[in-house]
Amino acid sequence: MTEKPIQHHYADEYAHCYGCGRLNDHGLQIKSYVDGDETVCHFTPGHKYSGGFPGFLYGGMIASLMDCHGAATAWAAMAGMEPLPLSRFVTASLKIDYRAPTPINIEIEIRGKVSQIKGLKVVVDLTLSAGGKLYAEGSAVMVQIPIDKKGREDGDKP
Amino acid sequence: MTEKPIQHHYADEYAHCYGCGRLNDHGLQIKSYVDGDETVCHFTPGHKYSGGFPGFLYGGMIASLMDCHGAATAWAAMAGMEPLPLSRFVTASLKIDYRAPTPINIEIEIRGKVSQIKGLKVVVDLTLSAGGKLYAEGSAVMVQIPIDKKGREDGDKP
C-alpha cells in the first residue's frame, strides 16, 4: 500500500471536498491509497452518522465514501498514465447496491478497482465491507476535468 | 403541500438518521413534504459542504439528500395504502446521474415521485434542481422493513 494518500496529491484548488479534501477542516478527510491493482480506504464512522436505527450507518455516508474513493481511484489510475500535475475527477454517475445494514463504530474498508478507461472517463467498481463481510457494492463513472475548466463548462459560477 | 414533514411521522426508534432524523441533533434534519402526486424537499447546503472546488456541492451530499428524500417518498406512498403506524424504509439501491456541478449556498429542491410499488418494494424517481435548473437525477429502490425486524434480518447487531 502506498504511504501517501491519493488525495494528498490533489492540487490545493481541488482539495476542498467535504468528503475527502485535506484542506476542508469541517469535512471527513478520508484517505485513499493504492494497493496493488486496487485502491483502499479505511474509515470508522462515529455514532452520529447513524441511519434510521441507531447502530447502523446511514446510506448517504456509504454513498459519500464510495463517491470520494471512486474519484481517488480514477485519479490514481490516470496518474499512472499521464505526467503530473493532473486535474481532479468529478462524478458523472454513481450506482450503489446496499446488501446489508452496515454497522457503525467499527472500521469500514472501501475498495476500488478500475474496470474501464476511455478518454477522460474512468469506470470504477467499488465495495464496502467491515470485518470481512460485504455490506455494499457499486460502480462510479468518473470524468477528469480539463485542467482549465474546473467544472464550469456550462457557465455556472459559485 | 402538506404542513407536517413526512419524517415527523416516523416512530421515534426510526428517527435517528444523520440525513433526516428529527432526533439526530448532529444531523442535517432534512424535511420532505407531500406535494400533489410528488414529494418535495428544500435544503440550503452551506459552504463547508463544498466539493473539490469551492462553490460547488460535493457529490456525497447530493446522494444523501436523494437517499433520505427517496425513503420519505416511499414512506408517504405506502402510508396512503396502509394504516399507521408504518415501519421505515431502507435503501436497496441508489443510482444518481450528475448532470452539472451543483452550486452551494442557494436553496436546492429535491423532488420524488413513485414509479412502482411491488410488495414491500417502492421505486422512486428523483430530481435535484436549483433556480429552475436540473443538476442531478436518479432513482432509488426502497424496501419497507417488517415492523419487528428493524434491519437485523441477518443477525447483525450494532
What does this structure look like?
Two copies of one chain form a homodimer. Chain A is mainly beta. The first copy, chain A, has a single domain, classed as Hotdog Thioesterase (Thiol Ester Dehydrase, Chain A). In chain A, 13% of the residues lie in helices and 34% in strands. Chain A has one helix and six strands; from the N terminus they run ββαββββ. The first copy, chain A, has one helix at residues 59-79; strands at 32-35, 38-43, 89-98, 108-118, 121-130, 133-144. In chain A, strands 1-2-4-5-6-3 form a six-stranded antiparallel beta sheet, covered by helices on one side. Chains A and B meet through helix 1 and strand 3 of A and helix 1 and strand 3 of B.
Low-confidence stretches of chain A: 149-158
Radius of gyration of chain A: 15 Å
Strand content of chain A: 25-35%
What profile does the largest beta sheet of chain A have?
Answer: 6 strands, antiparallel
Number of DSSP helical runs of chain A:
1
What is the β-strand count of chain A?
6
CATH superfamily of chain A: Hotdog Thioesterase
Order of helices and strands of chain A: EEHEEEE
